[in-house]
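Here is a protein:
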Amino acid sequence: MVAAILILLLLPVINTSEIRSSKFRPIFGIAYWFLVADFLLLGWIGQKPVETPYIELGMGLTFFYFTFLLVLVPLIGLIEKQLIRSEA
């Protein structure tokens, strides 16, 4: 739980995009809605009893949360940076 909150403090360091606003980043805009859905599903899973389908779903959603923040945010920033430089 602590790691899930502390990782949010690393976002300014992890973000590799030159554009800071997600309004002008279409790839990140799509990925953002996957993160919102992940938050909602993790909240729903937290209310459920500790039973077999909910345990596996919670582990998968938690894996996606950390993968999104540690892998996809920097990767999307690098891809968008390349796209911006190739158009100029």
